[in-house]
Amino acid sequence: xxxxxxxxxxxxxxxxxxxxxxxxxxxxxxxxxxxxxxxxxxxxxxxxxxxxxxxxxxxxxxxxxxxxxxxxxxxxxxxxxxxxxxxxxxxxxxxxxxxxxxxxx
Length: 105
Known about the structure:
Largest sheet: none
Structural class: mainly alpha
Oligomer: single chain
Order of helices and strands: HHHHH
Radius of gyration: 19 Å
Number of helices: 5
Strand content: under 5%
């Protein structure tokens, strides 16, 4: 970094787009438009089916949350954009909502 000079060093740290993202998010980490309709259908099917579907969804969401945490930690440790990830972690505690409120990994 010293050999780069101040301007190039700062650019190296903050111009994240210049570094290929070799750690894409998990395949499931995208909106699931079908989830709401599955939950509505389960509610209409009766209490037993609703309970089964809700419990299965909760199990899946807990596992996904663990997967997401591990992915993010690996990304902070080994990814090509460490400052970006550390700044995300820093601001995360200020603005992000909790999993308990969102209930969707």
